Amino acid sequence: MNQSRENWGSRMGFIMAAAGSAVGLGNIWRFPYMAGANGGSAFILIYLVFVFIIGLSVMIAEFAVGRRTSLAAVGAYKHYSKRWTFAGVLGVVSAFFIMGFYPVVGGWALAYVFKSLTGLLSNAGAIGDTFGAFITNPMEPLVWMIIFLLMNVVIVAKGISGGIEKAGKVLMPTLFVLLILIAVRSVTLPGASAGLAFLFQPDFSEVTGQTFLAALGQAFFSLSLGMGCMITYGSYLSKEEKLPNNALIVTALDTGVALLAGIAIFPALFAFGMEPAAGPGLVFVVVPSIFAQMGGIGTLFAAIFFVALTVAALTSSVSLMEVVAAYLIDQKQMDRKKAVYSTGFIMVITGILSSLSLGVMSGFTILGVGVFDFFDILTDKIFLAIGGMLLAIFVGWVVKKEDLRDELTNGGAVPFGLFDIWYNVVKYVIPLAVAVVAVLGILDIAQTGLMLFGLAVILVLGIFSHKL
Ligand code: PHE
């Protein structure tokens, strides 16, 4: 084990960074449109069940593995068993793939701060067209994406406590305050109650196998699980910290922000008579449209909203970049700066391809989808869920139970047999539940070829695990 390993500067710093990783585009950009597209309340209910039964337990497991080994994902798996190295590598691949599309959307958010302030809202009828024209433009979104990636490089290159922790401590509380402000404005609009009903009155008529896979994928994505990110963050955590408590706080914060984003968007959406199933453009089209109808103060609210979105995206993308960087630092003995610069360089290239796939390169498809969707669907619909399942199997069947007990209880006792409940959930319930949901969802999904490709990638990684 590495004596000179970096550590979080404080408990608050860790929580803010881990919550910063969890709270991101997943909560504010993706959660509302997923909920909107999957019928609202029923999706949200299934999502909440997955978050608190599967997500929370997996997060505790990731923290435990990370802190026990003081190693990032790949090293942590390898530490126990060479055969399992592939599960860590799958995490690094997932981080790369998520970073294939994430900075593109991060760039949109950044661009929209400036667009809101420079007249976007003055022509409410054109907001949808403006978004379409913007994301399909061959140059403009690339510039914003690269600026967004550069911000990541600067933060991650500064290291754990100097960069990521400092940024999270300032930016996360700002985000909470901003979102509450917007939510309050939204629910006080006349006609807002229809939006709250859409969010909170369960209607199971639209639930299919896909709904479950979508909700599970969203739970893993939103909590930053199933790809070693929380293993990596846990590896920098001091031995005194109580892991279950920290995991509960992070999970609650993440869920709170997603619900808050829903409360900020849907009541206003219904108040203005718009469509809930607007897709990925939801925040970028509907939110400015909502604010455009509020006059001058709306401009300010819109700009604030996009600052919040950019902040949330940034504290998440740094954690994704850190997973790749930590792998190069821990496993390839690379210097931090060199690791971050080379990682950032490759991400600029995947980001460019991904952004262009929405416009000039839209004719180019891999297994039926464009580059952006390729990265998005593969990670969200398979890699994270299978990654989480692998972690649960690993923790339940490979890691010694007594090591886990020691890690989770800090040597003390836990009330109500909670440790054993958690252990059995991880060992039996999660592997089974994820398998069932994955099969149901994959049978039900349109992109069968892509799904099979994803499974093949995991299989190949598994077979060559001894070489990784
Ligand atoms: N949780 C982040 C979000 O909601 C995305 C993310 C996924 C970050 C996986 C790290 C790891 O936007």
UniProtKB/TrEMBL annotation:
Signal peptide coordinates: none
GO cellular component: membrane
Major localisation: membrane
CDD domains assigned to the protein according to its UniProt record, in alphabetical order: SLC6sbd_Tyt1-Like
Keywords carried by this UniProt record: Membrane, Transmembrane, Transmembrane helix, Transport
Annotated membrane topology: Multi-pass membrane protein
Spans through the membrane: 12-31, 43-65, 86-114, 142-164, 176-200, 212-236, 248-270, 290-318, 339-362, 382-400, 421-443, 449-466
SUPFAM superfamilies in the cross-refs: SNF-like
Annotated localization: Membrane
Keyword flag Signal: no
A Pfam family it matches: SNF
NCBIfam families hit by this protein: Na_transp
PANTHER family: TRANSPORTER
Name assigned to this protein: Neurotransmitter:Na+ symporter, NSS family
Phylogenetic classification of the source organism: Bacteria, Bacillati, Bacillota, Clostridia, Eubacteriales
